[in-house]
Amino acid sequence: MAAKIDFFRVGNGDMTLVRFESGRTLLIDCNIRKAADDSGDETPDVASQLKDLLKADTSGRKYVDAMLLSHPDKDHCSGLETHFHLGKTADYPSNSGKILIREMWSSPIVFRRASKDHTLCEDANAWCAEARRRVGRYRDNGYCDAGERILILGEDIGDKTDGLEAILVKVGQSWSRIDGTADNTFEALLLAPLKEDDEEVEELLSKNDSSTVVRLKIGAGYTQDACRFLTGGDAGVAVWERIWDRNKNDAAESLGYDLLQAPHHCSWHSLSWHSWSQMGEAAEVSEDARDALGQPRSGATVVASSKPVEDDQSDPPCIRAKREYESILKPAGGKFVCVGDGGPEPLAYDVEPGGIKGRAKAVAASVAAPAYIGQKPVSHG
């Protein structure tokens, strides 16, 4: 099958399904609001849309091969307990219709930062508890149970991830396995969360919407690098500045993208230390953060998973951030697309050997641009 990427229309929130050419699936975040479960409400029924795209196991249970939670904010994990099975697969409630998560991709550092700054919602606590249960099973047995695996993204503080090397990915490392199986149709690179020894810097990152940041290489046919997809939850300006500092000497390889999910729903706070609502046009962009987010390949697309971007003081989404991304994309001949500009079906792309191509229903509301997003890097010299 062709690889596919679907951005669900969830307002200011993230919910993205990647289907690799191998047939395996990766769900990045979920934001299934109560209104989306109300048949009398116009909010898109994204839970049903998701299930329609998933395969079922021999017992008829829908599943994702892996689910990445970028960070535990409510708009990135709403609906988790309602629509996903957490706990032993053997305890799956018959006819519940819940989705199995065969492998969790989870960062302990992001959870620590979130709990320091604000109280976690029930869905976030449920994810955290299930992650701890799976890690505990690994520590007890030396392996993960089939269908109940976990991949830990980033080292924890205080050597708490020592002994977990077989299920741990460190920042700067790549992996090409999913649900315990090698898969040559993708390669993931972990760019954040960064663990800092400096307490002041660690505190700064904690308060700066720190998230897991991953760059995916997605293959199609004999082209292993048909699409590079960069996604980073709500990562803020301090995070992108440090990502740039770590990767600027290899930026085209580490940060180059054909598809960027604009962080924090197209927020200005991912590009600047200044408040857009307070300073307006006087707000200055961080050049390092812009450089980190400014590595489009030829014909690249930036997708804002947000409500429609208005020319006002809102943030997110922020009109100034949209203009900055359009400026970044201009030399590459790229385009900016907002998930909130259409619906109710997901904003959908097929990954083909020549690049990615929007499916007809999804691209109707987007700006005119080349149908395919190619692979040639753009010069930033």
Fold and architecture overview:
The chain is an alpha/beta fold. It has a single domain, classed as Ribonuclease Z/Hydroxyacylglutathione hydrolase-like (Metallo-beta-lactamase, Chain A, 4-Layer Sandwich), CATH 3.60.15. 26% of the residues lie in helices and 25% in strands. The protein has 13 helices and 23 strands. The chain has helices at 46-53, 74-77, 80-83, 108-117, 122-141, 199-206, 237-247, 251-255, 263-266, 276-279, 287-293, 319-329, 360-363, and strands at residues 3-7, 16-19, 25-28, 30-31, 63-64, 66-68, 84-85, 99-101, 103-106, 149-153, 168-169, 174-175, 177-178, 181-182, 186-192, 213-220, 223-231, 257-261, 296-304, 335-338, 347-352, 355-358, 372-373. It has a 10-stranded mixed beta sheet with strand order 11-10-9-6-3-2-1-21-22-23. The radius of gyration is 19 Å and the shape is globular. It starts with a strand and ends in an 8-residue tail after the last strand. Mean pLDDT is 91; it is low at 362-381.
pLDDT < 50 runs, ≥5 residues: 362-381
CATH topological fold name: Metallo-beta-lactamase, Chain A
Number of helices: 13
Global geometry:
globular
Strand content: 25-35%
| CATH superfamily descriptor | Ribonuclease Z/Hydroxyacylglutathione hydrolase-like
Write down the overall mean pLDDT: 91
CATH C-level: Alpha Beta
CATH architecture: 4-Layer Sandwich
Strand order of the largest sheet: 11-10-9-6-3-2-1-21-22-23
Q: End-to-end span in angstroms?
A: 38 Å
Radius of gyration: 19 Å
Tell me the major beta sheet. 10 strands, mixed
Number of strands: 23
Q: Name the structural class.
A: alpha/beta
What's the number of structural domains?
A: 1
